Amino acid sequence: MILVTGATGKVGREAVEQLVGLGHQVRALSRKPEEAHLPAGVEVVAGSPADPASLTVAFDGVDRALVVLSGDVAGEARNVAAAAAAAGAEHLVLLSSAGVLHPLPHGIADEHRAAEEAITASGVATTFLRPGPFHANTSWWIRTVRENSAVRCWIGNTPGAPVDEYDIASVAVVALTQDGHRGASYVVTGDEVLTSEEQARILGEVLGRELEFSVAPEDEVVEVFAGLTGDRAAAVTNVAALRSPEVPWGKPTTAVRDLTGRAPRPYRAWAADNAALFR
Ligand SMILES: NC(=O)c1ccc[n+]([C@@H]2O[C@H](COP(=O)([O-])OP(=O)(O)OC[C@H]3O[C@@H](n4cnc5c(N)ncnc54)[C@H](OP(=O)(O)O)[C@@H]3O)[C@@H](O)[C@H]2O)c1
């Protein structure tokens, strides 16, 4: 039995569908099973990685798990590690972040490093997936594109190699179901190096209209992040790291090709699949 946490989200849902398609028995963890709408045959357990009691139920009889965390990533990882160890699980594939390799100290890196350490301390075999920015992050632009054909970018315009959620899920599925990935860590990126402005241009081409692009000033973004999280110091370091020319997702890696045997999906494909959201 393979458990997927965060199973209704961007990466988890893709992973569940791919695992079911390959004939694996899948259990999914969701706070709202009645709204999960996962494929037939998937056993949905109510709960979340923030709730240790639900993890005890979810891990019963599970040998492998894709661990996707939201919210207090480090605390949730400690909960997952304890439940997986107690259940005698054999392999945990953690959706971490390329941020752990960033040379600038910042909160996102710290919480994912703490999550990796907690999962390692479980004693269960691990694989760490460290993606750069997801293609779906451009969903942040939906409202302004719809209303004004405008993109106001919060994360700056540093070149990076964004990756499709489908590809991260595919890498996770290979790591979970094929030999040779226990103990490994993969930086998972797309093939193309793009700035946010170039993504906005591609999105505009797909939508058939030009989008006006601008980068929000750093102090304005810090205020927005601080307002969302209540942690101004973390907002300052996170925004600086995301805008730094030293981002560790600046160069494409071969992880998607190496594990799946195919090329990563280009951003244009994500934009075409999701164009209706922006119209
Ligand atoms: N976006 C990026 O560029 C990026 C890059 C690198 C790493 N990551 C990491 O990827 C992970 C997120 O993956 P994802 O985008 O696939 O997940 P997601 O879609 O944001 O969320 C996955 C599921 O978690 C549950 N959830 C959402 N918010 C929650 C909260 N506050 N507390 C508890 N449960 C919550 C929801 O499931 P239910 O409602 O069904 O419970 C949701 O469907 C994070 O650890 C993030 O740091 C993201």
In short, what is this structure?
The protein has 11 helices and 9 strands.
Please tell me about this protein's structure.
The protein is α/β, with parallel strands linked by helices and 279 residues long. It has one domain: NAD(P)-binding Rossmann-like Domain (Rossmann fold), CATH 3.40.50. The chain is built from 11 helices and 9 strands. It has helices at residues 10-21, 52-59, 73-87, 107-121, 142-148, 165-177, 196-207, 218-229, 232-243, 255-260, 267-273; strands spanning 2-4, 26-30, 43-46, 64-67, 91-95, 125-131, 150-153, 185-188, 212-215. Strands 3-2-1-4-5-6-8 form a 7-stranded parallel beta sheet, with helices on both faces. α1 (10-21) packs across α6 (165-177) and α7 (196-207) packs across α11. It is globular and about 50 Å long. The structure holds NADP nicotinamide-adenine-dinucleotide phosphate. Residues 6, 8-12, 30-32, 36, 48, 50, 68-71, 73, 95, 97, 131, 133-134, 137 line the site of NADP nicotinamide-adenine-dinucleotide phosphate. Residues 6, 8-12, 30-32, 36, 48, 50, 68-71, 73, 95, 97, 131, 133-134, 137 line the site of NADP nicotinamide-adenine-dinucleotide phosphate (NAP).
